[in-house]
Specification:
heterodimer; A: about 550 residues; mainly beta; Rossmann fold; six-stranded mixed sheet; 9 helices; B: about 180 residues; alpha/beta; five-stranded mixed sheet; 4 helices; 11 strands; globular
């Protein structure tokens, strides 16, 4: 019997075949799969010479930069093990403002610091750190002077104060704001700033009626104008940017089934034009070109994948070049230099962790900057197939992930939580890939109630607990069983997904062999009656 | 003169506080698994209590005013089982120590003890968030299953002789459901 372990090894290795790209089809160690991203948040300096990035390992977190000319990596700021990045951005081509926290001797400390990069011929020779001691946050670069920022802080009396300030001056321990923006009303709960149009927006909240009002004015203007009065969160109204002084681009589904990009005329409070609407999918975001006053891009999920559609011909061309240069990846432009001659591009794929590329426009050259999880690069992951079924008159989209390597002949049906206003996508999902690389097939279903397919589909999920939602899932399961039949089916999920999994087995015991349910919502009356604070009138009015 | 006035004000406040405390009968949780309901207009009040730290007193206002003392209010999870007059009550006040207390709004903390049964009104949770001293989060949570396990373990005899019901805010048919299941078995 001495040969048994050898036989086992040979059989196992035989199962872990390699694909054409030399990637290993084998169970990825959980510790590698679920470890946080090592690199993230690349930000290009305005002159395109440096790429700031945040690195996190078990030993330490740090801010660093890559020199574009030499590709050298230069550490800028060590934050200790567990240090966190809140945000950073380039104030100039050699000043990076960092906000986050560092950990020193086990103690966490909030940090706001301006890092001054001193360089000779593009090579970093020294770093100077200017600690910003005054408490507050940067709202954005000032439209009137790009070298200055809008700094927001709170007065001793608790009122919001906004200053236009040279950010390097904030490092002065005796800093006191000189250029304060006047006439800020007390009732605003939050301010936003559109630097391109130099417009300040304020959001106020009416406690009694639970409604919001948005007002706006030029940064240094006197009187506030009402943009939208007394709206609630039953529908979408997200300003994307001013097109001119009286018109803005907004994402909304007030007037249409799908969330679309509208031209909203403020004086008449009307949606005067549809700037972009997709026939099947809700938009999730959009951007505006402040120079032309036109929409620059829109984003939506199509077949589970995030699609960025550039309405600007130049960016559309660059994206197409990138998509061609690395097959199997879908690119979006994440950041670009002031002259738009260098781009940082994100490469997505359902079956690979995200990669970041640097795209040189003049040379037409895309260069890999880094992978967010380099230790996963050698493994093969499952690429989903999209299936659509008609269920009770509605089109239901689902994603089927075939197993990788060994095959267990088990289909894991994984309904998402919610159920209303939530959705599954095909972006690289570590939990899904954990199962597929262990031989399981996985099915995710965007049943009615899911976000992204319009208002009617979303509202169609209301009151369908255990009913039509489960029929939608069943229809998707039957479709997949026709295409790729599995011997056994197991339903698993959390929250509503847990309840849904259980219901699937109760309604169809002949179909489902096992259920794994985590904190499922099995008892709706109990969910409502769980505590005295949830049975009060205010809560009851929210859920009734 | 000023000092004397302050002294008399403090004395008066102390007397009023003392009288307020005296208006409630001090009670303590039943320990033995014996039926102590002696009159037909009595029922059992079962309160679960979860608190981060020892409390000084808990007042329950009704036709009878009840005061639970620190004996039953030590930190952790505790159950308080009391034979009381069947009527409407509400949690009235929590004393953290001699100086600090919270009065509770009658409408949100009301419950009814019905005669002849065990009335579980919920778990009164008193938690102090780590970020703010003396800003307590107080909530009455329905943990009916925990209360059932407690009664099965410490008062099996009483649970056999008296039906148990949820009597806290909202509705919960949990006890009727498991009683039905037990009957089927």
């Amino acid at each position: 019997m001495r040969w048994t372990p050898w036989l086992f090894t040979v059989v196992s290795l035989w199962g872990y075949a390699q694909d054409d790209a030399g990637r290993i089809a084998a169970p990825v160690p959980a510790i590698s799969l679920f470890t946080n991203q090592q690199f993230s948040a690349p930000a290009l300096s305005p002159d395109g010479q440096y790429i700031a990035l945040f690195e996190m390992t078990e030993e330490a977190a740090q801010v660093g930069l890559i020199e574009r000319s030499s590709t050298n990596y230069v550490p800028l700021l060590n934050l200790g093990a567990g240090g966190r990045l809140k945000e950073y951005f380039w104030l100039s081509s050699n000043h990076l403002l960092f906000t986050g926290s560092l950990v020193n001797n086990g103690k966490r400390q909030d940090v706001r610091v301006t890092l001054e990069v001193i360089a000779t011929d593009g090579a970093v020779s020294d770093i100077k750190a200017h600690v910003v001691r005054v408490d507050g946050y940067i709202m954005g670069q000032a439209g009137e002077d790009p070298k200055k920022v809008l700094f927001t802080t709170t007065s001793r009396g608790g009122n919001t104060e906004i200053y236009v300030v040279d950010p390097v001056r904030l490092a002065d321990p005796n800093w006191s704001g000189k250029d304060r923006i006047r006439n800020l009303p007390d009732d605003m709960v939050r301010y936003f700033y559109d630097g391109g149009a130099d417009m300040l927006l304020g959001l106020s909240y009416d406690d009694e009626n639970a409604t919001y009002t948005i007002k706006y004015r030029k940064l240094r203007g006197e009187s506030w104008q009402v943009m939208l009065k007394d709206f609630n969160t039953d529908y979408t109204f997200e300003p994307m940017g001013f097109l001119n002084d009286s018109q803005i681009a907004v994402l909304s589904d007030i007037a249409t089934d799908k969330i679309a990009l509208y031209l909203y005329d403020i004086p008449t409070a009307t949606f005067s034009d549809v700037l972009y609407e997709h026939e099947s999918y809700d938009l999730v975001s959009a951007s505006i070109d402040h120079n032309s006053g036109e929409p620059a891009s829109v984003r939506y999920y199509k077949g589970g994948e995030m699609v960025v559609e550039y309405l600007n011909a130049v960016q559309e061309y660059h994206q197409a070049q990138l998509n061609q240069s690395v097959p199997g990846r879908r690119f979006t432009l994440a950041d670009y230099s002031a002259a738009a001659d260098v781009y940082v591009a994100v490469a997505y794929a359902p079956d690979a962790p995200t990669d970041y590329y640097l795209f040189d426009v003049a040379r037409q050259e895309a260069r890999l900057l880094f992978s967010v999880q380099p230790e996963l690069d050698d493994y093969k992951f499952s690429r989903p197939q999209v299936y659509e079924v008609i269920s009770a008159g509605s089109k239901v989209e689902s994603y089927y992930y075939p197993p990788v390597g060994q095959v267990n002949d088990v289909l894991l049906v994984m309904p998402h939580g919610g159920p209303v206003g939530v959705r599954d996508t095909t972006e690289f999902n570590r939990l899904t890939q954990f199962y597929t690389t262990r031989g399981y097939a996985v099915l995710q279903v965007n049943f009615r109630g899911s976000f992204g397919f319009g208002k009617a589909f979303r509202e169609g999920g209301v009151g369908e607990f255990g009913q039509q939602i489960e029929q939608d899932i069943l229809a998707a399961v039957k479709k997949v069983q026709q295409v790729a039949p599995a011997q056994n089916i197991c339903a698993m999920g959390s929250s509503y997904g847990g309840y849904s999994s259980l219901m699937l087995s109760i309604l169809h015991p002949e179909l489902v062999d096992c259920v794994i349910s985590r904190f499922g919502v099995y008892d709706l009356p109990l969910l409502f009656n769980q505590s005295n604070l949830k049975t009060n009138n205010a809560w009851a009015s929210q859920v009734s | 003169m000023q000092g004397k006035r302050v002294f008399y004000l403090m004395l008066l406040s102390s007397i009023l506080l003392f009288l307020a405390g005296c208006a409630a009968t001090s009670v303590s949780s039943q320990k033995q698994d014996t039926d102590k309901l002696v009159e037909t207009n009595q029922g059992y009040l079962l309160i679960g209590l979860v608190n981060d730290y020892d409390l000084q007193a808990l007042y329950v206002w009704g036709e009878e005013n009840l005061k639970l003392t620190h004996e039953d209010l030590s930190a952790g999870e505790n159950y308080i089982l009391l034979p009381v007059k069947a009527c409407e009550y509400h949690f009235g006040r929590i004393d953290y120590n001699f100086y600090y207390r919270t009065s509770l709004n009658e409408d949100e903390w009301r419950f009814e003890v019905k005669p002849g049964r065990i009335n579980y009104v919920g778990h009164l949770t008193v938690e102090q968030p780590f970020y703010y001293f003396f800003a307590n989060h107080i909530e009455l949570e329905n943990r009916a299953a925990n209360a059932q396990l407690f009664m099965e373990k410490y008062f099996p005899g009483l649970l056999t002789s008296r039906d148990m019901f949820y009597a806290g805010p909202g509705q919960d048919r949990f006890y009727s459901l498991i009683a039905g299941l037990e009957e089927q078995q």
